[in-house]
């Protein structure tokens, strides 16, 4: 059984950990953060859907997520979640004033913005076009994890087609308990993913219509 020292407890091969969605318990958060720092893969709630997550600087954990999703790490278009706009700005190249206003208007919220990747983005997470998808979710558990981890979390959808079972953390646990290290139960999740907007050109381009409203 793996031991996560900061939390001071021993966990089974995979566990379902209940966390209050509005007031995450510090002990539970410490357990999850220790799992992430140990190279663990988790399933956690966001303001849209439950997703796979890991520490963005744990290459083996990223590769494990790609195996779960059956995708090539070098071809996958993975993204990650940041704590706030200041945190996000560390992982993209210079943000123009119009782009900053756009981001500030929509974040935190159910949006993923495709942006030019900075040197701080791990090579394994950059696309061939040297871009990265960045999010700031409006969800207390996700943002608390990022704050305590002190850097972003990888964000990847669960494999396969989005089904109703993916909204129930207990069903998620039963399905993925042999593939991940921890499932965070933050209550029933949603079924609609984030809206994706490509901001690498002069004008933003909607590439996926999701939960976030967007006018072209």
Please describe what this structure looks like:
The protein has helices at 26-37, 59-69, 85-88, 97-106, 140-149, 169-176; strands at 3-4, 9-10, 15-18, 42-44, 51-53, 79-81, 111-116, 131-135, 153-157, 182-185, 195-198, 205-208. By secondary structure, the protein is α/β, with parallel strands linked by helices. The chain has a single domain (3-208), classed as Alpha-Beta Complex (DHBP synthase), CATH 3.90.870.10. The strands form 2 sheets. It has a 10-stranded mixed β-sheet, sandwiched between helices. Strand 1 (3-4) and strand 2 form a beta hairpin. It is globular and about 45 Å long.
User: What is the third-level CATH name, the topology?
Assistant: DHBP synthase
Roughly what fraction of the amino acids lie in strands?
Answer: 15-25%
- Rg, rounded, reads 16 Å
Name the poorly predicted regions: 5-11
* CATH level-two architecture: Alpha-Beta Complex
* Total strands: 12
Number of helices: 6
Could you give the order of the helices and strands?
Answer: EEEHEEHEHHEEHEHEEE
Question: Biggest sheet: strands side by side, in what order?
Answer: 3-10-4-5-9-6-8-7-11-12
């Amino acid at each position: 059984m793996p031991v996560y020292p900061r939390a001071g407890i021993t966990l089974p091969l995979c566990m379902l950990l209940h966390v209050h969605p509005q007031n995450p318990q510090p002990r539970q958060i410490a357990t999850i953060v220790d799992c992430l720092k140990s190279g663990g893969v988790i399933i956690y709630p966001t303001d849209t859907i439950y997703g796979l997550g890991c520490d963005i600087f744990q290459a083996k954990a990223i590769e494990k997520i790609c195996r779960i999703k059956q995708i090539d790490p070098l071809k996958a278009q993975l993204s990650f979640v940041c704590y706030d706009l200041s945190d996000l700005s560390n992982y993209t190249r210079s943000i123009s004033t119009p782009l900053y206003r756009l981001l500030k208007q929509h974040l935190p919220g159910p949006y993923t913005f495709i942006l030019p990747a900075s040197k701080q983005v791990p090579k394994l997470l950059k696309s061939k076009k040297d871009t990265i998808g960045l999010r700031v979710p409006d969800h207390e558990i996700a943002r608390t994890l990022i704050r305590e981890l002190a850097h972003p979390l990888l964000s990847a959808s669960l494999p396969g087609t989005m089904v109703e079972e993916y909204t129930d953390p207990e069903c998620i646990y039963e399905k993925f308990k042999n593939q991940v290290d921890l499932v965070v139960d933050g209550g029933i999740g949603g079924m609609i993913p984030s809206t994706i907007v490509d901001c690498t050109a002069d004008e933003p381009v909607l590439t996926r219509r999701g939960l976030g409203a967007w006018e072209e």
